[in-house]
């Protein structure tokens, strides 16, 4: 469902991605794990067609990101840190307006909003203006907005950051529920426990290099470690001693 071939990105003379090649499959929640500056956002923005790669390409849901960016955009819902909400609109108004953009009728939009209310526990968020939202309320509406058109591919970039434990739990349960035939969720984070909880496989990215793509048990076995955190250090600094 996602095939990335030799994707590179340079910003001036700085190389943010070094020939990344990997695949992610239909039905997976696929983790992208790496510390600050690893290149996660750069990679996900390229996949969402928000940024052009310097080299290489990728195919998402059967569409090439360079040759058919419009079709890619229709196939994906994207949540990243840079998305604001209009302060004067309520959550319901935001979601209805996005539903209209995607061609849903009012009845279809309201049915979808009701479904997302159940899944994301939107509650009173729907009828409060965005200017009055807490971080958790805002993030829930941003996620609902990203999936209002029920896209087969969902890209979540550090979506849990800043959320309290209740909102984080709702988000992780929502991500769990996206695991279904015909769907792919890309879940980027630097928090190992989130990957351990929701991801079927994980790509470990460090300084723009892809160090490993596998299931969590496989990366633990490959590195001879007992936790994802230990495995990460073993991959990043293979020469340094690390507790197993
Ligand atoms: N527009 C830009 N111009 C120059 N350098 C950039 C630009 N965007 C990103 N970078 C650099 O590219 C590298 C990768 O950044 P990116 O945001 O993709 O990492 P990340 O893994 O998402 O990290 P974080 O968790 O901190 O967001 C970093 O060193 C960053 O400073």
From TrEMBL:
<protein>
    <submittedName>
        <fullName>ABC transporter ATP-binding protein</fullName>
    </submittedName>
</protein>
<keyword id="KW-0547">Nucleotide-binding</keyword>
<dbReference type="InterPro" id="IPR050763">
    <property type="entry name" value="ABC_transporter_ATP-binding"/>
</dbReference>
<dbReference type="InterPro" id="IPR027417">
    <property type="entry name" value="P-loop_NTPase"/>
</dbReference>
<keyword id="KW-0813">Transport</keyword>
<feature type="domain" description="ABC transporter">
    <location>
        <begin position="2"/>
        <end position="232"/>
    </location>
</feature>
<dbReference type="InterPro" id="IPR003593">
    <property type="entry name" value="AAA+_ATPase"/>
</dbReference>
<dbReference type="Pfam" id="PF00005">
    <property type="entry name" value="ABC_tran"/>
</dbReference>
<comment type="similarity">
    <text>Belongs to the ABC transporter superfamily.</text>
</comment>
<keyword id="KW-0067">ATP-binding</keyword>
<dbReference type="GO" id="GO:0005524">
    <property type="term" value="F:ATP binding"/>
</dbReference>
<dbReference type="InterPro" id="IPR003439">
    <property type="entry name" value="ABC_transporter-like_ATP-bd"/>
</dbReference>
């Amino acid at each position: 469902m996602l095939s990335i071939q030799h994707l590179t990105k340079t910003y001036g003379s700085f190389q943010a991605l070094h020939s990344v090649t990997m695949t992610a499959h239909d039905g997976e929640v696929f983790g992208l794990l790496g510390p600050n500056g690893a290149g996660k956002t750069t990679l996900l923005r390229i996949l969402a067609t928000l940024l052009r790669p310097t080299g290489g390409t990728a195919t998402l849901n059967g569409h090439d990101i360079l040759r058919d960016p419009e079709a890619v955009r229709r196939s994906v819902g994207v949540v990243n840190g840079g998305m604001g909400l209009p302060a004067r609109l309520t959550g319901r108004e935001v979601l209805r307006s996005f539903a209209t953009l995607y061609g849903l009728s009012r009845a279809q939009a309201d049915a979808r909003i009701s479904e997302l209310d159940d899944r994301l526990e939107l509650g009173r968020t729907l009828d409060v203006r965005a200017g009055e939202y807490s971080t958790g309320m805002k993030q829930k509406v941003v996620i609902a907005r990203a999936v209002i058109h029920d896209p087969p591919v969902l890209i979540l970039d550090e979506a849990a950051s800043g959320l309290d434990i209740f909102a984080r739990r709702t988000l992780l349960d929502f991500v769990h529920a996206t695991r279904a035939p015909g769907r792919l969720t890309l879940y980027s984070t630097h928090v190992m426990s989130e990957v351990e909880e929701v991801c079927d496989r994980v790509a470990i990215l460090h300084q723009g290099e892809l160090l490993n793509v596998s299931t969590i048990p496989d990366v633990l076995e490959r590195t001879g470690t007992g936790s994802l955190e230990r495995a990460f250090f073993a991959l990043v600094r293979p020469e340094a001693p690390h507790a197993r």
